[in-house]
Amino acid sequence: MIRLNPEQLVFVTERHLATLTTLRADGTPHVVPVAYTWDAEDGVVRITARRTSVKARNARRRGPDGAPPRAAVCQVDGGRWMTLEGTITVVEDADEVAEAVRRYAKRFRQLQHDPDRIVLRLTPDRVMASAYMSS
Of 54, 119, 122, nearest to 84 (Cα)? Predict the structure, then answer.
């Protein structure tokens, strides 16, 4: 499990949007802006999405070799940046969705109820960041 250093932890709790990159069926990148939360205890990124979104469809698709789908979240603020890269899964469990919504409300704003809301759960195995955050 990835553990972020103190500078990285501060950065992922500040109020910034990021981009999520997933792969389409043809292998090309699908990049969209997202708001996400970091769960330091579980070492995961949570992104809420609609069940029918392209990013959710991409997160369900295994690679040509059968490997789990991969994705990256990249947050940028001026010259500061950090990318969390790893496997991504779609979670429809009501408790997981509620937890993601609770964390989102704490970092950004309260979300309205949406019965089609799911969670994209990214488990990073690689972190890249600005030099000052990389130590």
Answer: 122
Note down pLDDT in tens along the chain; length 135 residues.
888 999 999 999 898 899 999 999 999 999 999 999 999 999 999 999 999 999 999 999 998 888 999 999 999 999 999 999 999 999 999 999 999 888 888 878 788 888 899 999 999 999 999 998 886
> The sheet that has 80-91: what strands, in order across it?
29-34, 18-23, 70-77, 80-91, 117-129, 44-50, 37-39
Contact 98, 115 (CB under 8 A): no
Whether the model clears a pTM of 0.70, i.e. scores above it, the answer is yes
